[in-house]
Write a structure and sequence with these properties.
The structure holds 2 protein chains of 2 kinds. Chain A has a single domain, classed as MetI-like fold (Orthogonal Bundle), CATH 1.10.3720. Chain A has 14 helices and no strands. Chain A is flat and about 115 Å long. Chain B is mainly alpha-helical. Among the domains of chain B are: 207 residues, MetI-like (MetI-like fold); 62 residues. Helix content of chain B is 65%, strand content 6%. In chain B, a hairpin with a 2-residue loop joins strand 2 and strand 3. Chain B is globular, with a radius of gyration of 28 Å. Classes of the chains: A mainly alpha, B mainly alpha. At the A-B interface, helix 1, helix 2, helix 8, helix 9 and helix 12 of A face helix 1, helix 3, helix 4, helix 10 and helix 11 of B.
């Protein structure tokens, strides 16, 4: 019996390249025959479609407000001339032409305020005061009648400023209502809980358009004789009540995520109900739901397009008005739609990116 | 230090929590009651002053307007009742078809986000980002514009096989009802029953022996085969009502109006983007260890998805999916913007004709509330079936 001799097995081959472009392509596009075939089919479709689209939208497109060139390019090139021709009307609606610097300044101010509200260093109590100031300035700028500014009735407001006003104001006003309703739905008092639940479920069960119909057709009947309220305010109230119900559910989600021990600990410290909510529950709950609040804001921003159905000329309505009034440019309405779709997209997309960023920030403390 | 007994609690003191709660509730009830009374009395007064009649008696009067499309025949001499019925049927038609298509498309897109193919992943996420961030109303208007401007006029409709595409919508062949079709229908019904029985049996066998049988393809094949058999027994009727291009319009066959197509397309595409996100988050919520454990137990990829991943993902998916279905149904109210005669647009017309805004909006809200409640009940029932069985 001989001692076992050591017999080395041949070494394994070195792993094929797992880094770099080629390896990425191999594993992500041409892994097996299924992947490869779908890559080829989809890639072929893209190669066929994308150049055509780029040609239509950029290369062969007419950029100048030149009706003849637009008509000549019809069928193979987009006519962005319609936007060049009508942009002021689309963006500012029927606001008096020579006064349009006012909505521009007001909108920029509001946007700056929105951006500031998105930053953590500004999440301080004085933010509410700043919002109030900005809203007052916004209304003074838009409405005028003071400081040497000419008066502009609300029915001439329109376009992007109106979209931003409706969405920002309704979410800002909805927030306190939503806070109270969310707390009410978790209250121990049955009557208050019932009212809050009925309110939320009632609003969430009906489409926004019926709420807007109510605001524009029924609201005047609700008011005492002789008191007429501007349609803009009525619609604003409608959207606010609508947004508040959805926001209340979002906040309630945050409240439910707070462990009961927190509330019990606060009770042992002798804090009252409101102290507990203000100092213990809400700071944690709200921080948790910031991304969902931003998402509600996005959906309200998109939903403001519905007010064009009750004849307020925000961005969508302003486009309809601008282009339907001019038979020459009417064939190029699709390009107008694409233009405002781009505006909506830029706003909503950046907000959704922001909400994803916040979500990461909120979760940082939970990561190990 | 002497021990003092705590002060005796007075039940009716402001310092008693129960008493305070009672007062708060009474105040809330009083405030809300006053508000309702204020609004109601204003409304009644205003209606009296303006001479507006109230009541639902107008529902039995003739409507006096015709409706572009309906599932059952409607004539302008018929009552408002029936007009609202037509509107409701149109709303439900677009909602049900839209929900089916949006679920299919959304699930495909959501699963596509996990594809091994980078191109598929990228396209799916581009789709979601693109269609989620544009208002649905704008999308509807755009689709409607495409339908009515880009497509050729009805006189020179595009012919694709037996289909006609034009500004007038889509015309397609429909099978003519014959006695033989009844056999096919009977075959289908029998197939569904058989498939159901098969599923019960397969489940029982699975519990008993652990041998998993096909739960999707075999039942589906059963339904198709029995349907075909019935069709053959009935003499294989193939008579179709083909659309024919006439001088001014496309005649015969079935037709879908551009309004219906635009709203169906818009709602499907918009909601599918949200459903894709719901499906993606549901799948992502299943820990990777579950799949690995299934593989370690020797399940192949298909069984792993069916028995391990899907049941866990469904639990996360169903509640937000319910919300998306409700959203789609509620968004179908935007049909009023493009002239599809859904219940909102019927209510709008009725409101303008009779001036009874309160009643019409009340009907509208009642209808949507009942649809919402019904959908919630159905989905909650399904959710209870897939939820974790806890003791």
């Amino acid at each position: 019996m001989s001692a076992p001799t050591f017999q080395p097995i041949p070494p394994r081959p070195a792993p094929t390249n797992t880094e770099g472009l080629l390896a990425w392509l191999r594993s992500n596009l041409f892994g097996d025959w299924k992947t490869a075939s779908s890559t080829i089919i989809l890639g072929g479709l893209l190669l066929w479609f994308v150049p055509q689209f780029l040609n239509w939208s950029l290369v062969s497109a007419v950029w100048a407000p030149d009706l003849k060139a637009c008509r000549a390019a019809e069928g193979f090139g987009a006519c962005w001339g319609v936007v060049a021709e009508k942009n002021r009307l689309i963006i500012f609606g029927r606001y008096p032409f020579e006064q349009q610097w006012r909505p521009l300044v007001a909108t920029l101010l509001m946007l700056a305020m929105l951006v500031a509200s998105c930053m953590r260093p500004f999440w301080k109590p004085w933010l509410a005061g700043a919002w109030l100031a900005v809203l007052v300035i916004f209304f003074v700028l838009m409405y005028g009648n003071t400081l040497g500014l000419a008066k502009v009735e609300t029915d001439r407001w329109g376009g992007l400023p109106l979209t931003i006003l409706l969405s920002a104001l309704s979410i800002v006003m909805a927030f306190p209502i939503a806070l109270v309703v969310a707390l009410g739905r978790r209250s121990d008092l049955p009557a208050i809980r019932a009212f809050c639940t009925i309110y939320v479920e009632l609003i969430r069960g009906v489409p926004l358009i019926s709420v807007l119909f109510m605001a524009s057709f029924m609201f005047p009947l609700f008011m005492p004789q002789g008191l007429t309220i501007d349609v803009l305010i009525r619609v604003l109230v409608g959207i606010t009540l609508f947004a508040a119900a959805y926001l209340a559910e979002v906040i309630r989600g945050g409240l439910q995520a707070i462990p009961k021990g927190q509330i019990e600990a606060a009770a042992t410290l002798g804090l009252s109900y409101w102290q507990t909510q203000r100092k213990i529950v809400l700071p944690q709950a709200l921080a948790m739901v910031v991304p969902s609040i931003v998402n509600s804001f996005i959906s309200i921003f998109k939903d403001t397009s519905l007010v064009s159905i009750v004849s307020l000329y925000e961005l969508t309505g302003a486009l309809d008005m601008a282009i339907n009034a001019d038979a020459n440019w009417k064939p190029f309405k699709l390009q107008g739609y694409l233009f405002i779709a781009l505006i909506y997209f830029i706003f909503c997309f950046s907000m959704s990116r922001y909400s994803q960023w916040v979500e990461k920030q909120v979760n940082i403390s939970k990561q190990r | 230090m002497s021990l003092k007994s705590p002060p005796k609690k007075n039940k009716w003191s402001w310092r008693s929590q129960a008493f305070r709660g009672l007062v708060y509730q009474l105040v809330a009830i009083a405030v809300i009651g006053l508000m309702v009374w204020f609004l109601a009395s204003n409304t009644l007064y205003n209606m009296r002053v303006r001479g507006i009649q109230s009541g639902f008696d107008f529902l039995s009067q003739p409507a006096g307007f015709s409706i572009g499309e309906s599932l059952f025949p409607f004539d302008s001499a018929e009552s408002y009742w029936r007009a609202f019925g037509v509107g409701l049927s149109n709303t439900l038609r677009v909602a049900v078809v839209g929900i089916i298509f949006a679920t299919l498309l959304g699930t495909l897109l959501g699963v596509g986000r996990f594809s091994r193919n980078a191109l598929v992943r990228g396209l799916c996420s581009a789709y979601v980002e693109c269609f989620r961030n544009i208002p649905v109303l704008l999308q509807l208007l755009m689709w409607y514009l495409v339908m009515t401007e880009v497509f050729p006029p009805i006189q020179d409709a595009w012919k694709v096989g037996p289909f006609f595409l034009s500004k007038g919508g889509v015309n397609f062949p429909i099978p003519v009802w014959q006695a033989g079709q009844a056999w096919a229908a009977a075959g289908l019904v029998a197939g569904v029953l058989l498939a159901w029985a098969y599923r019960l049996w397969a489940k029982q066998r699975f519990e008993a022996t652990g041998i998993a049988r096909s739960m999707v393809w075999a039942p589906m094949a059963l339904v198709v085969v029995t349907g075909l058999l019935g069709w053959l027994v009935g003499g294989a009727p193939t008579v179709m009502n083909m659309p024919v291009k006439g001088e001014f319009s496309v005649e015969n066959g079935g037709a879908l109006t551009p309004e219906f197509l635009a709203i169906l397309l818009g709602l499907t595409i918009y909601t599918a983007a949200f459903i894709a996100e719901v499906v993606r988050s549901g799948i992502a919520s299943v820990p990777a260890g579950q799949g690995e454990a299934a593989a370690a137990l020797g399940l192949d990829r298909r069984l792993e998805i069916r028995l391990v991943m899907l049941p866990q993902a469904l639990r996360v998916i169903i509640p937000p999916m319910t919300n998306q279905y409700l959203n789609l149904t509620k968004n179908s109210s935007l049909a009023v913007a493009i002239g599809y005669p859904d219940i909102v647009s019927i209510a709008n017309t009725a409101m303008n004709q009779t001036g009874r805004a309160v009643e019409c909006i009340a009907i509208l809200m009642a209808v949507y509330l009942s649809i919402s409640l019904l959908t919630s009940v159905l989905m909650n029932w399904y959710n209870a079936r897939v939820a974790i069985k806890e003791r």
